[in-house]
Specification:
single chain, 140 residues, 3-stranded antiparallel beta sheet, two-stranded antiparallel ribbon, 41% strand, flat
């Protein structure tokens, strides 16, 4: 038996443009995410997709079972930092050895440097997502 996975991105229902219940709060104020207009049979605009998982027989001739689900792909990615992240960045890290001397692996930083690092990391995180995705960062 083998499994197959497909993501066709074709709309199964027609829906008009609407506001999503989720609210994005960014640097320029807040707004509801848009639920784009969809027409049945047309390609689905982000963020809605149908995912199908199919179970085939060994020769991939007979379909044994299939499961489909419509999923929401977020238009906004929120990056949450641990509440103690700045404290952890300021603390030094030393090697753990059974004999002296203990070596400093990371010397720590100032509160200002830690804050600047978090701002820089939020920008770097954005590099892993498409340009159409909004990145929001905050402390958890």
């Amino acid at each position: 038996q083998s499994l197959s996975f497909s993501w066709d991105g074709i709309a199964q229902a027609s829906l008009s443009l609407a506001d999503h219940p989720d609210v994005f709060t960014g640097t320029n104020g807040w707004f509801h995410r848009a639920m784009p207009e969809m027409r049945s049979g047309d390609p689905v605009p982000p963020p809605f997709y149908t995912i199908a998982v199919r179970l085939w027989n060994a020769g991939r001739i007979e379909l044994l079972n299939e499961y489909t689900e419509t999923v929401f792909v977020p238009q906004v990615v929120k990056v949450y930092w641990h509440p103690q992240v700045e404290t952890r960045l300021r603390a030094s890290i030393q090697s753990i050895t059974n004999f002296p001397p203990v070596e400093t692996i990371y010397g720590g930083c100032t509160a200002l440097q830690a804050s600047a690092t978090l701002e820089t990391l939020a920008v770097k995180v954005a590099a892993f997502f498409p340009t159409s995705v909004n990145i929001s960062s905050s402390t958890a």
